[in-house]
Amino acid sequence: MSDKGETEDNERQKIKHLDTSVVNRIAAGEIIIQPANALKELLENSIDAKSTMIDILIKDGGLKLLQISDNGHGIDKDDMSLLCERFATSKLSKFEDLESIATYGFRGEALASISHIARLSVITKTKTSPLAHKAYYLNGKLANANFKPDVSNIEPKPIAGKDGTQIIVEDLFYNVPSRLKTLKSKNDEFSKILDVIGRYAVHTDGVGFSCKKFGESYQVLVTRPTMSLTERMRTVFGPEVANELIDLEIKGNDPTEEEDYAAKYGLIRVSGAITNSNYNNKKKIQPVFFINHRLVTCDPLKRAINSIYQFFLPKGNQPFMYLSLVIKPQNLDVNVHPTKREVRFLYEDEIIEKISAKVHQLLSSIDSSRKFKTQNVLSNRQDLKRSNDEFAGLSREDTLNQSISQPAKKYRQENKLVRVDAQQSKLNTFLTGQTDSNYHGQMTKEFTQPKTTQEGIPGSTENEYIEPGLDTQAKANNSVDLQSLNFTFDSQYQVSEKKRMQVNLESILSLRQEITDKVHKPLTNIFNNSSYIGIIDELRRLCCFQFDVKLFMCDYSAILYEFFYQAGLSEFCNYGEITLTEPLALDKILEPLYDSSLNDEKKLQQKEDVILKIMHMKDMFREYFQIKLTYNEDGKASILTLPLLLRNVKPYLSKLPYFIYRLGSRINYEDEKECLSGILKEISLLYVPESISNEISLEDTTSISDKREQTQEYEKQVNVVKRNELDHVLEHTLFPTLKQKFIATDKILGSVVQIADLPGLYKVFERC
């Protein structure tokens, strides 16, 4: 038995080769520790490719998606089979080349390592190639589109693309669950990625960088290729650092120096910037060190410079430093650390001593004045209550000394005091117990009276309003009372199990990008921090709102038109659905527009042609816009549903004839982008509030004076109800949503005007 046990132990202790896949995965884990390491390797590849603009897209801290696009020289199709092979590189061919290496990459391990722990795809195009090519990689080898090693379908596919390379890393560490558990939150990983991008953006002159989160409309970080060092510092590290910088420059072969550091120690040049002694910062910012354009950590250099700052900064304050060292390549060993974050170079002590002496010289030369942040000392409350008798025995000099030692009382500036907090809700918001539809019902209940509708659909003029339930002769006159239709608002909302659709149509993505490109940030900030005041002209559709100490007037129809268009674009294919109580025939809806007097003036298209064109596209309307069109029992084209853009906001059905007519006559269905944009604009118009006229219209048939007065009074009351309802919706629904979601663009600049501000009013009235 003992002999058998010894035999089993010997078998277990035998040395054997690890499987190649295990070796590669272990090596990849040493090189790619976190998403920021993968991004650093990809950034360096893009810079090596002579790119002038690099765009980065991040999702879930780089774990779900890490995409980097550049406009460099690209990769030849013939080289794509070796792109992710380990130790395949174009940077060197023999070990001696390391002595003169001047590029970031040289081992050929970055992409290989990433392909072993993530799903990697590459799109690239050279200037000489007519087409771009896309390839997929798994474990260092070419794979098919499903990331399977299918030998028959792994060749790079020709696609449309622009010059440069786009590398897409998905599901990082999907096969290393233990590594995923060690990573911090997604926001922490994104912060590390942003830090790496910022450091390369500061150092790399002539290259622009942009970074955004997946699904966000704004860029988190943007630098342009033409920015100076100070501008890049300001963008990345803020004005506090940029305003207190001192340029540092050392030339190794400076003829004014006693020693030639270039010839003796291999130091060619040191450049960068450090903060002066006025920089007051308690938060430590890691120094930015580049040696031969490689981002590294150099603790000896960091300690030496910090020791110099101890003589110039108050205790507890931290400096900021950015230094770029250029050393002869033969004096530098870059192959020290798997992630290349550390390097070794000859004559380290001499070079660090030279840099420290230069830092001391610069700080000493400007140490003639100092700025300090001050804080008022709060007096004891009992000191303020002392009686005047306690000062009776003080001499004039004592009183003067005491007044100097105490800080002057700080008075608040009434003319600059913001009296309305944009983030604070109004009290009546909490007292409102009804929903919007109930509110409308209670407001109109008191004033509802029977009224005969005119022939056709009332509201053939856009501004005309029809009260619910006033349809006593609608059928007799072959008309449809659109406002009498019921909707499922508020408590009648039904939540469906419909899964949210991911929209990848290029036309929709392009339309969304157009809004992003035209964003007006100051105006967006004004709307995001505004406080609604009220309607000032319901006929011209003007209202007022406050921002800070300024009062603005805006055309709310133009603002809401743009807002509803953005809402429709954002929720494309995912709208709610308004179901009509019964189908409405399109020819009945269009009938008022084709009245003989109107038709002669407008020269409208044939009604049948309009309906035919709409019904021809009914499948698209149903799938994209929740507009359900069908044929009723009589074989007539009818509409069943409308899109719901925003909860508690309903479309204006008096505009429905115009909406239907424009869908059949104003939309270019031949061009996808123009078609979808046009339909979204028409839906937006359907939701924009109508003008409320103050004029009283009298019917010719009214001959009795009492009846005329009764009609006038009723119409006045209806206008009051409509105005109050609109004001209620603007204050409690639309403006709160605008503050959260609206992106102001250049096109609405003319629709917003500042009409007053508090300092100006104080100059006139001397009070508020």
UniProtKB/TrEMBL annotation:
Superkingdom, taxonomy of origin: Eukaryota
Assigned protein family: Belongs to the DNA mismatch repair MutL/HexB family.
Gene Ontology molecular function, alphabetical: ATP binding; ATP hydrolysis activity; ATP-dependent DNA damage sensor activity; mismatched DNA binding
Organism: Debaryomyces fabryi
Localization per Swiss-Prot or TrEMBL: Nucleus
GO biological process: meiosis I cell cycle process; mismatch repair
Segments passing through the bilayer: none
CDD domains in UniProt: HATPase_MutL-MLH-PMS-like (cd16926), MutL_Trans_MLH1 (cd03483)
Listed GO CC annotations: MutLalpha complex
Domain DNA mismatch repair protein S5: 233-364
This protein's UniProt keywords: DNA damage, DNA repair, Nucleus
Protein name as catalogued: DNA mismatch repair protein S5 domain-containing protein
InterPro entries: DNA_mismatch_repair_CS (IPR014762), DNA_mismatch_S5_2-like (IPR013507), HATPase_C_sf (IPR036890), Mlh1_C (IPR032189), MutL/Mlh/PMS (IPR002099), MutL/Mlh/Pms-like (IPR038973), Ribosomal_Su5_D2-typ_SF (IPR020568), Ribsml_uS5_D2-typ_fold_subgr (IPR014721)
